[in-house]
Design brief:
Elements lengths: L1 E2 L5 H7 L9 H13 L15 E2 L7 H5 E2 L4 E2 L1 H4 L4 E4 L7 H13 L1 E5 L4 E5 L3 E4 L20 H9 L3 H5 L6 E2 L4 H4 L8 H18 L14 H7 L4 H14 L3 H18 L6 H9 L13
Bound molecules: zinc ion.
Zinc ion binds next to loops.
């Protein structure tokens, strides 16, 4: 999520576990085990029943993030297993810390090898990050003036490496809500209702991948599965091809768009990916269009 200070990025991240499906018993046990090994299970907790939400400070060390130490301890990425790992102010994290995140994001497990031991901890988490759009915070803001030069805006984004950015499926710009809209009497959708839709979409996915061990949702699709289950119809394919050329998107972005489009279609209960699904998924690649910071 990229947006000005006060646009509600952290608030949205914290609410995320409330729309995710409840933990299954197996997930509950795994999560409890990790927290117990880390000595982070309260004396009154027998079983962790809520998805973890971990939000380490940007001054965190690589060891505290991925795990390790004298006696092997799980890090924040494993404490976030089956839940959400939220990196607030992503560009403030040290570059080396961000780099060690890449592999566990792909593998969903981490092997820590030292002279004396080698241990493996699971770390299948949803990675969520927030950042200001520029050093002053107001680039692209509807009412306030950004005082940064185009070079400063581009350099700020460049603190996040391309390969890490590539691994983020959904990149959205959060635009602050105007006061009139905030006081609008219409109520938004309740988290509990959104959660029901998410649960239905996940059930469709469980069913789809039931013959593939270890694969439960669209995010885990391999290229072969993408080709099998996320092929858009002819019209949406030509839309995607056009967007790829015009926005100068990478091959990795192409796969991400198909995965996200598959999920958007699942949320609607649509069997085939159509134009609206692809169009929405393309709109979630705000940062890799090569135009960020150029004023276009
Ligand atoms: Zn600025």
């Amino acid at each position: 999520m990229i947006g000005a200070p006060g646009s509600g990025k952290s608030m949205m991240a914290k609410r995320l576990p409330s729309i995710l499906p409840p933990l299954t018993l197996a997930e509950s046990l795994e999560t409890t085990k990790i927290h117990s090994v880390a000595g982070k299970l309260g004396s009154r907790t027998a079983l962790i029943a809520r998805r973890p939400f971990r939000s380490p400070h940007h001054s965190i060390s690589s060891v505290a993030l991925i795990g390790g130490g004298q006696n092997p301890q799980p890090g924040e990425i494993s404490l976030a297993h089956n839940g959400v790992l939220f990196a607030d102010e992503l560009p403030e994290f040290s570059r080396s810390v961000l780099e060690v995140l890449r592999q566990p994001l792909e593998d969903r497990k981490i092997t820590i090898s030292r002279a004396r031991y080698s241990v493996e901890f699971p770390c299948s988490f949803m990675f969520v990050a927030s950042m200001n759009p520029c050093p002053c915070g107001y680039y692209n803001h509807p009412t306030r003036q950004c005082v940064c030069s185009p070079g400063q805006v581009a350099r700020y984004l460049n603190r996040i490496s391309g390969p890490l950015l590539d691994r983020i499926d959904i990149q959205v710009e959060i635009v602050p809500v105007a006061f009139e809209q905030m006081s609008d009497s219409r109520r938004g959708e309740r988290s509990a209702d959104i959660r029901q839709r998410v649960i239905r979409a996940r059930q469709i996915q469980e069913e789809r991948y039931r013959e593939y061990p270890g694969i439960h949702c669209n995010a885990q699709m391999t290229s072969a599965l993408l080709a099998e289950y996320a092929q858009p119809d002819a019209k949406s394919l030509s839309l995607l091809k056009q967007a790829m050329e015009r926005l100068n998107l990478s091959a990795r972005a192409y796969d991400r768009i198909l995965k996200v489009a598959r999920t958007i279609a699942d949320l609607e209960g649509a069997p085939v990916i159509g134009v609206p699904h692809i169009a929405e998924a393309i709109s979630y690649r705000s940062l890799d269009r090569g135009t960020w910071g150029t004023g276009l």
